[in-house]
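Risk register update: the risk of archive-format incompatibility is retired. Evidence:
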Amino acid sequence: MNTAAVLDVVRAGALTTVQDEGRPGQAHLGVPRSGALDVPAHRLANRLVGNPARAAATLETTLDGVALRPRTPVIVAVTGAPAPVRVDGRPVAWGAPVRVPAGAVLDVGRATDGLRSYVAVAGGVDVEPVLGSRATDLLSGLGPAPLVDGAELPLGAARFTPPAPDAASFRAPPRELVLPLFLGPRHDWFTPESLRTLAGGGHRVSPAANRIGLRTEGPALTRVKEDELPSEGMVLGAVQVPPDGLPVVFLADHPVTGGYPVVGVVPERCLAAAAQAVPGTPVRFTVRDA
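Archived output:
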């Protein structure tokens, strides 16, 4: 048996990807940022296993978790959306460092709250970097492909002992997703009534939301300008309004340019909650002048 530091994927789950903090600063080259959607959960998972919080790659699961079998003993931690965690069928701690023996199966189950869990392994997931990052970008195709059953994931060398604080605090997913919205650059393309609609809480998270954008359902925004808009740069947190009038909050895998008007921008620090908001969650924007 190969005893290299490798994770064998037993069950890939609905969508499990390798994520770090992405490829910032390359939008002028047409390269999206990508990276973990819930950055605080990603960093916490790394800290719990002794990895550099901002540097090592973790696994981001979606809704129904993942199952992995290490070929050597490893230390792991699961954060983000709470989920049952088992080693060879035995319950172990969520939000704390856990030792997984060689050949045992680590099973992260279905999220009980929220959408996305983060699995960190001491040493980090050591797939080949692309443009300085190991992040999977679903829009551009950069980085490793989403996990499939039977895949092999190399691990880096574990350099640190897990820290003394060995339990994670739990941030409950929002019952209502309240997002500050700084108006502009195209808010004047919409009626004043539409801006009041944004603040009214009548929207909810759509089942079509993904890593590219949090799509919404609810009342359509009405435009006062129907001009064609040349493609222009898009930033993380931009709230773009396509022809159906339903706002889309751009997340980590968003395109770097777009041709629909942006009514405003949600600050990056507020987007982790959007990563954990399940379909049907009410969405309300607190509108502010830039």
